[in-house]
Design goal:
single chain; 257 residues; mainly beta; four-stranded antiparallel sheet; 0% helix; globular
């Protein structure tokens, strides 16, 4: 309530799982979260996180969730090598359907491309990215620009550019100009465990964050996604997530462990 200047811990009924990702559904004021462990690995809250309804899903390591704002479809991805890799919800997270015949790559992040029925997933294994063009129903594997462990994704609508960062490999940044079908490596980002990336449309800026790496910046920025700049003095923390907060807050927020 104070433009993210301070935070308060909530005492609520959510299961003590390792909750990894969350999405907000405007209009119904619902948050939907997924976890990589626990009995019930999905949950939703209709009161800004004060209380939660647990949802029983398959016991896979759910680490990513994204939403198609046009259709309302939610898609979640798991980083497990076996079992269900993708599940889908068409009722705002109340129930989920696991999908079969999904390429067996460990998913770490999923993004929806606005104005389309396309979802793209970043994978930790196989040097692959996964692409769905039918609102998350079916998925195909495409080759990444390098066989790295790709951890995160961000998309610029104004530049029609999709960016992905990795935590392994010589060069750990790649971009796509065709919504994830083909990828181009950026000669940068080596030696740093990149964890998350976002795009701020107001600033026209990509921001990537990483876990601590000696003598290396843990924050990088780029306008185009092709050329990146290290932010000095931004090392020393294990940054896990970064997000663009729209007006009236108009801030970029990062959290660490």
């Amino acid at each position: 309530d104070d433009s993210c200047i301070s935070f308060s811990a909530l005492t609520n009924n959510i299961e003590r799982n390792r909750w990894i990702d969350i999405v907000f559904i405007p209009g119904i004021n619902r948050h939907v979260a997924v976890a990589l462990d626990g009995t019930n690995r999905a949950a939703y809250s209709d009161d800004d996180g004060a209380t939660w309804t647990a949802v029983l899903v398959t016991l896979d390591e759910w680490v990513a969730i994204a939403r198609n704002a046009t259709t309302g479809t939610l898609v979640a991805g798991a980083q497990t090598t076996t079992g269900t890799h993708v599940m889908r919800s068409t009722d705002n997270g109340a129930t989920w359907t696991g999908l079969t015949s999904i390429p067996a790559n460990q998913i770490r992040d999923i993004i929806h491309i606005p104005g389309t029925d396309r979802f793209v997933a970043a994978c930790l294994t196989g040097g692959k990215m996964l692409v769905s063009t039918d609102d998350g129903l079916t998925w195909s594997a495409v080759s990444a620009a390098a066989a790295n462990a790709w951890t995160c994704l961000a998309y610029s609508v104004s530049r029609a550019t999709l960016v992905s960062l990795a935590n392994t490999g010589t060069n750990r940044i790649q971009y796509s100009l065709d919504q994830g079908d083909t990828w181009i490596i950026v000669v940068a980002g080596g030696g740093v465990n990149w964890r998350n990336v976002c795009n701020d449309p107001t600033l026209d800026l990509f921001v990537g964050v990483a876990e601590f790496a000696a003598a290396a910046s843990c924050v990088i920025t780029s306008t185009t996604g092709l050329v990146w700049t290290s932010i000095t003095g931004a090392s020393g923390s294990r940054w896990q997530h970064v997000a663009s907060l729209p007006a009236p807050i108009s801030k970029i927020l990062a959290v660490a462990v």
